[in-house]
C-alpha cells in the first residue's frame, strides 16, 4: 500500500478493510498519500480498522503453538482521520462500533474522498 503499482488518478474508489493495522506509524502517511495519488478527483475511500481509546503497538511472538513475529498498530479514529486530511483526503463520515462477542477492540469506519477537481482544472 505504500507504493501502489498504478498510474496517477486511475481508481474510482478504494476499500481498505482491516489492512492498516499492520502498517507501522511512520509508513501510514505514505499509504494515504498513495491513496490520494491513484484516486481520480472526487473518488471515495472507505477504510475500516480496529481502533481504541489511545494509539498503541502490540507484537505477537506466538500463535497456535508456532513462533511468529506479527505487529499490530492500534490507532484512535482521530489519529487516522488526521492522517487522511494531511494526505489531502476530505473526511465525510466516521462511524464507531463497539466490540461485540469475542472482539477485543472497537471498530472504526472512515469515509473520505479525494477532492473533486476545481472548475479551473487546478
Essential attributes:
single chain; 122 residues; alpha+beta; Rossmann fold; four-stranded mixed sheet; 2 helices; globular
How would you portray this structure in words?
17% of the residues lie in helices and 35% in strands. The longest helix has 11 residues, at 28-38. It has a single domain (14-113), classed as Vaccinia Virus protein VP39 (Rossmann fold, 3-Layer(aba) Sandwich). The protein has 2 helices and 6 strands, in the order βαβββαββ. The mean pLDDT is 93. The strands form 2 sheets. A 4-stranded mixed sheet has the order 1-2-6-5, covered by helices on one side. A two-stranded antiparallel sheet has the order 3-4. It is α+β, with helices and mostly antiparallel strands. The protein has helices spanning 28-38, 77-86, and strands spanning 14-17, 44-50, 56-63, 66-74, 90-97, 107-113.
Mean pLDDT: 93
- Stretches with pLDDT under 50, minimum 5 residues: none
Fill in the CATH topology.
Rossmann fold
Q: Outline, from the CA principal axes?
A: globular
- The sequence of SSEs as H and E is EHEEEHEE
What's the N-to-C terminus distance?
A: 26 Å
Strand portion, in percent? Answer: 35-45%
User: What do we call the CATH homologous superfamily?
Assistant: Vaccinia Virus protein VP39
Report the major sheet.
Answer: 4 strands, mixed
In the CATH hierarchy, the architecture is 3-Layer(aba) Sandwich
Radius of gyration: 16 Å
CATH class: Alpha Beta
Overall tally of domains: 1
Number of strands: 6
What spatial order of strands do you see in the largest sheet?
Answer: 1-2-6-5
Structural class: alpha+beta
